[in-house]
Amino acid sequence: MASETxxxxxxxxxxxxxxDRVLYGRLPGFGLSELGHEMAEGISEHFGQRAENGQPVxxxxxxxxxxxxxxxxxxxxxxxxxxxxxERVLEAENKFEGLSEVKRQLRNPRMWPLLxxxxxxxxxxxYTQQVSRVLAAVKDLADQAVAEHGDGAEVVVVSHQLPIxxxxxxxxxxxxxxxxxxxxxxxxxxxxxxxxxxxxESVTYDEPNEALSxxxxxxxxx
Length: 222
Prior knowledge:
Low-confidence stretches: none
Radius of gyration: 17 Å
CATH topology: Rossmann fold
Shape: globular
Largest sheet: 6 strands, mixed
Number of helices: 6
CATH class: Alpha Beta
Number of strands: 6
Number of domains: 1
CATH architecture: 3-Layer(aba) Sandwich
Order of helices and strands: EHEHEHHEHEEH
């Protein structure tokens, strides 16, 4: 990491339009719902207000998936800044991608081999691999922001729940294996990685759209 300090805010995207409740994962074409667009406006307001109060954002990035790009768009427009498309913060690979009613389908014995190792996990991209790629992106974005804007630079990155959550677990020196129901990473929540000479030195968490997220449907594939 750069020797100076920086903060990289990992923002989960907003609610997705998914009436068939498909585990959409990396599938193309899944954009925000009406509520999701409202959440994106809320994120724009949150970081816009911070900028007006002396905490400007210096760099914007997002996963290439439609829901992430749509979430960051209002903030980019408000700040008049470009968005870097960052492949390394993409949603986790999942072998159940494209299925609906996943819980019911897991009763099929043909699916059971995919559940053999929940610690890796056996049904998708290893947790360690997700952490490695997200941290590499965080390092590069923090270094770029500091090089261009100096000590204390801030970056906003729109990503996805699982990559954000396992990166936070790593930063807090907790096991990467977890119960998905325990994730503290609601829609458009902000997980902030505070970067110093030693790398990620602390983590803070905020829910600027807490009231809106309570209205959201619990959809798979987020």
